[in-house]
Amino acid sequence: MAKIRTLVVDDSATMRGLITAALNRDPEIEVVGAAGDPFEARGMIKALNPDVVTLDIEMPNMNGIEFLEKIMRLRPMPVVMVSSLTQAGAEMTLRALELGAVDCVGKPTTATGTAEALVEVAEKVKTAARASVRTKADAPAAPARRGAYLPSGDVVAIGSSTGGVEALLTILSQFPETCPPTVITQHMPATFTASFAARLDRASGAKVQEATDGALLEVGKVYVAPGGATHLEVVRSAGLRCRLVAGDPVSGHRPSVDVLFRSVAQAVGEKAVGAILTGMGRDGAQGLLQMRQAGARTVGQDEASCVVYGMPRAAQEIGAVEKQVSLSSIGQSILDLASARR
């Protein structure tokens, strides 16, 4: 099988060397070039025709966001952003993911972090190589205007990974102020989820916030699992509440979509709607099946609109998905299912 031809773009010679060495250690990847700024990278992209680019956000002359915009407009290709784990870095990375970057990885800040991040960047590059990258002309149509929604007592649970930033922005922009209580697990670095919740809040009619332990699930509110150390669950305790649980990764992830979906199956049962979105791997498939077996309604994002058709495919294959829906229609489909009389 041909190796994944990768171009590394970073203004730090040290970081270029570390990323290059880490990627070349993976037998599935070949680094074909390394550039110190976007102008050098532009020539290398034309000359080397890489399959994937890793792109630093903070660079001189032209930052990574500006360069990414040019790439996605002129020559769309899989891009993995490499970002500092700071508030400003998180906000710029989210902007990059909105613009079409496939995924992101945090720049290491310690020796231990360096080893972990460099292993992660290789996995991200391999995922990116399988991604469906669209031009903005191919992106989902603008969501329909938010309509009125009469709360029905249902709870919505959503799981997503690679490509989930675009998907969740599209879906939640369709949610009105009266949307069902909604819980979300999106695979994302710990330092990014608060900024992501704030970005979703600006796009949605609902109030979107990072989930906190013990938070009461309320109509018109959306709760995003914090990245990193805990899983998000839904439990019954004087109403339905968020619970953050420390534990090992499940299905390869922490927070895990499987953990969230299983808790919703147990705590909410048939008064729930589950949606599984774009992402690599199988996280969420078994949990969504448990939701469906408990009487919940379930939807999966269709292959054509996924950046990576992994998680929805896995759920579809085991019978967890009641129906597949395009990204532009999922938001309204979730609201319709949550209001349907059983």
From TrEMBL:
Sample GO molecular function, one term: phosphorelay response regulator activity
Top-level enzyme category: hydrolase
The keyword Acyltransferase appears for this protein: no
4-aspartylphosphate: modified positions: D56
Top-rank lineage group of the source organism: Bacteria
Active-site residues from the entry: S161, H187, D283
The keyword Calcium appears for this protein: no
Coiled-coil annotated residue ranges, if any: none
Post-translational modification: Phosphorylated by CheA. Phosphorylation of the N-terminal regulatory domain activates the methylesterase activity.
Segments forming domain Response regulatory: 5-122
Alphabetical list of SMART domains matching this protein: REC
EC number: 3.1.1.61, 3.5.1.44
Record GO biological process: chemotaxis
Keywords per UniProt: Chemotaxis, Cytoplasm, Hydrolase, Phosphoprotein
Reactions the enzyme catalyzes: L-glutaminyl-[protein] + H2O = L-glutamyl-[protein] + NH4(+); [protein]-L-glutamate 5-O-methyl ester + H2O = L-glutamyl-[protein] + methanol + H(+)
InterPro entries the UniProt entry points to: CheB-like, CheB_C, CheY-like_superfamily, Sig_transdc_resp-reg_Me-estase, Sig_transdc_resp-reg_receiver
Domain CheB-type methylesterase: 149-341
Compartments where found: Cytoplasm
Any one of the GO CC terms: cytoplasm
Entry note about domains: Contains a C-terminal catalytic domain, and an N-terminal region which modulates catalytic activity.
Assigned protein family: Belongs to the CheB family.
Protein task: Involved in chemotaxis. Part of a chemotaxis signal transduction system that modulates chemotaxis in response to various stimuli. Catalyzes the demethylation of specific methylglutamate residues introduced into the chemoreceptors (methyl-accepting chemotaxis proteins or MCP) by CheR. Also mediates the irreversible deamidation of specific glutamine residues to glutamic acid.
Name by which UniProt lists this protein: Protein-glutamate methylesterase/protein-glutamine glutaminase
Gene this protein is translated from: cheB
